[in-house]
C-alpha cells in the first residue's frame, strides 16, 4: 500500500499549522536557555513528537544551534523524533524482562516491522519504543501494544500481533471499498 | 614562572597553565586525547592524563590542575598507569580497529598511546560495542565515522571558537553518543566550506571531507 502521495498533500497544511502553533507556544517562554527543556516538553505534549521544523524554531527562539537543541533532546528518553504510530508498541527492557530476553522481543518487532526502536513505519501504523518496566514483571517478557499488556512474549506472538492488526486493517479497507460514495 | 618537580626533574612553567601543559611543554609525555593547548576550561573527558601530585589522596587529571610553585608530580606510578590502561581499553572497546584502512594510520594518538602504555589495540577482556551505521554522510561536505570517533569533543570546541555557535554537537547518550550536525542550516555554505577546522583538528580522522573518506 502506498500512501505517500496523499500524505504529501496532507503534509503541507500540516506543516504550516505546526509552525503557527509552535510559534504561539514559544510566546509563552522567554529566550533564556533554562527554558529549553520545558519548551520541548510543551511541544511534545501537544504534537506527541519533536518535528525537525519545531526543533529549528526552538533553536531560533533561544538563540542556539539546531544541533545543540537536538543534542539536548536526544539525551533524554522522553523525547521522540518521529510521530507515534496508530498502534504504538512498547517493549519492556526492565530488569525482569531483560533477564527473560526482552531484547530478543524488541529485535523481533524491529525486524518484523523494518524499523528501529524510536521509529515509526512509513504507513504510520506502528511505532516501537523501549520502556523500562511497565509494572507486571511476573509476565516477563512484556510488551504493551495499544495500551494492552502482552505478557509472556515470544517471537511467535510478535508475528501473531502484527498479523492480527494487518487482518483487521484489511477487513476495514474491504468494508470501505464496499461503501462507495463515502470519501476515504 | 613557576617551578615544579616532575618525576624528580625540576621544570619551569608559565603562570596559570595546567600541569599537563607544563609537562608537555617540557617534553614529558602524558597520554591525553581531549586537551587543546590554551583551553581555559578543558572538558576533562578522556580520562587519560592522570598524574599523582604530592598531597593529593588520589591521582588527578593533570589538565584540570594548575601548575603551582613547589608542586611535586609523578606521571608514571603503577596507580596512574592502571587508570590509564583501563580508560584506554574502554575507549578501544568502542573503536573500530581497522588501522590498515584508516586515514589516521601511523599518526593516530590511539596507536601512540597503545605503544606508550604497552596495551594492545584490541583489548580482549572487554566486549566490543560498535555503532550502526558506521558512517554518517548527512553533511554535504563531511563524512563522520562514529566508530573511529573517541568523542574527545575537539571538533565542537574549534567549531565554537570559529563560529561562536557550534554547528555540531554531541547527540544521544552512553554507547550511542555521536557527533551530529542535525538541523543545522547551510551546511554546504561558506561557513563550513571555508573552515573545515573540525577536519584538521580531528586526531583520529573520524571527521573527513567526502573525497578524503578513503585514503
UniProtKB/TrEMBL annotation, chain A:
The keyword Iron applies. Keywords: 2Fe-2S, Iron, Iron-sulfur, Metal-binding. Binds 1 [2Fe-2S] cluster. [2Fe-2S] cluster binds at residues 92, 97, 133, 137. The keyword Iron-sulfur applies. Its cofactor is [2Fe-2S] cluster. GO terms for molecular function: 2 iron, 2 sulfur cluster binding; metal ion binding; oxidoreductase activity. It comes from the Bacteria. Coiled coil: none annotated. InterPro entries: NADP_DH_HndA-like, NuoE-like, NuoE_dom, NuoE_N, Thioredoxin-like_sf. Pfam families: 2Fe-2S_thioredx. Belongs to the complex I 24 kDa subunit family. This is Respiratory-chain NADH dehydrogenase 24 Kd subunit.
UniProtKB/TrEMBL annotation, chain B:
CDD domains: fer2. Residues 79-118 form the 4Fe-4S His(Cys)3-ligated-type domain. Keywords: 4Fe-4S, Iron, Iron-sulfur, Metal-binding, Repeat. SUPFAM superfamilies: 2Fe-2S ferredoxin-like, 4Fe-4S ferredoxins. Residues 138-169, 183-212 form the 4Fe-4S ferredoxin-type domain. The keyword Repeat applies. InterPro entries: 2Fe-2S_ferredoxin-like_sf (IPR036010), 2Fe-2S_ferredoxin-type (IPR001041), 4Fe4S_Fe-S-bd (IPR017896), 4Fe4S_Fe_S_CS (IPR017900), NADH_UbQ_OxRdtase_ferredoxin (IPR054351), NADH_UbQ_OxRdtase_Gsu_4Fe4S-bd (IPR019574), PSI_iron-sulfur_center (IPR050157). The keyword 4Fe-4S applies. It comes from the Bacteria. This is 4Fe-4S binding domain protein. It comes from uncultured Desulfobacterium sp. Residues 1-79 form the 2Fe-2S ferredoxin-type domain. Gene3D superfamilies: 3.10.20.740, 3.30.70.20. One of its GO terms (molecular function) is 4 iron, 4 sulfur cluster binding.
Amino acid at each position: 500500500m502506498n500512501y505517500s502521495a496523499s500524505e504529501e498533500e496532507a503534509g503541507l497544511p500540516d506543516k504550516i499549522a505546526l509552525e503557527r502553533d509552535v510559534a504561539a507556544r514559544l510566546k509563552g517562554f522567554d529566550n533564556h536557555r533554562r527554558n529549553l527543556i520545558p519548551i520541548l516538553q510543551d511541544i511534545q505534549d501537544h504534537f506527541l513528537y519533536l518535528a525537525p521544523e519545531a526543533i529549528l524554531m526552538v533553536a531560533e527562539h533561544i538563540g542556539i544551534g539546531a544541533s545543540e537543541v537536538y543534542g539536548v533532546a536526544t539525551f533524554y528518553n522522553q523525547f521522540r523524533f518521529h510521530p507515534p504510530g496508530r498502534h504504538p508498541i512498547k517493549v519492556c527492557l526492565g530488569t525482569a524482562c531483560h533477564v527473560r530476553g526482552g531484547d530478543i522481543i524488541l529485535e523481533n518487532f524491529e525486524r518484523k516491522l523494518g524499523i528501529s526502536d524510536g521509529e515509526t513505519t512509513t504507513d504510520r501504523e506502528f511505532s516501537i519504543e523501549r520502556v523500562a518496566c511497565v509494572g507486571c514483571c511476573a509476565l516477563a517478557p512484556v510488551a504493551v501494544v495499544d495500551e494492552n499488556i502482552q505478557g509472556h512474549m515470544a517471537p511467535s506472538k510478535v508475528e501473531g500481533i502484527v498479523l492480527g492488526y494487518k487482518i483487521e486493517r484489511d477487513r476495514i479497507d474491504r468494508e470501505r471499498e464496499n461503501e462507495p460514495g463515502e470519501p476515504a | 614562572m613557576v617551578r615544579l618537580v616532575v618525576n624528580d626533574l625540576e621544570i619551569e612553567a608559565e603562570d596559570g597553565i595546567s600541569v599537563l601543559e607544563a609537562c608537555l611543554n617540557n617534553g614529558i609525555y602524558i597520554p591525553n586525547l581531549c586537551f587543546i593547548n590554551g583551553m581555559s576550561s578543558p572538558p576533562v573527558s578522556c580520562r587519560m592524563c592522570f598524574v599523582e601530585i604530592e598531597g593529593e589522596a588520589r591521582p588527578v587529571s593533570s589538565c584540570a590542575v594548575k601548575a603551582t610553585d613547589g608542586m611535586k608530580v609523578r606521571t608514571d606510578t603503577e596507580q596512574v598507569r592502571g587508570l590509564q590502561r583501563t580508560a584506554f581499553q574502554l575507549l578501544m572497546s568502542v573503536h573500530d580497529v581497522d588501522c590498515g584502512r584508516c586515514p589516521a594510520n601511523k599518526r593516530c594518538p590511539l596507536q601512540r598511546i597503545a605503544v606508550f602504555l604497552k596495551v594492545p589495540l584490541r583489548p580482549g577482556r572487554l566486549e566490543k560495542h560498535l555503532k550502526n551505521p558506521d558512517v554518517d554522510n548527512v553533511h554535504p561536505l563531511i563524512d563522520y565515522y562514529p566508530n573511529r570517533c573517541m568523542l574527545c569533543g575537539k571538533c565542537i570546541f574549534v567549531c565554537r571558537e570559529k563560529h561562536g555557535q557550534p554547528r555540531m554537537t554531541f547527540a544521544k547518550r552512553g554507547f550511542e553518543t555521536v557527533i551530529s550536525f542535525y538541523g543545522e542550516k547551510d551546511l554546504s555554505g561558506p561557513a563550513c566550506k571555508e573552515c573545515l577546522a573540525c577536519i584538521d583538528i580531528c586526531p583520529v580522522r573520524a571527521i573527513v571531507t567526502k573525497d578524503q573518506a578513503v585514503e
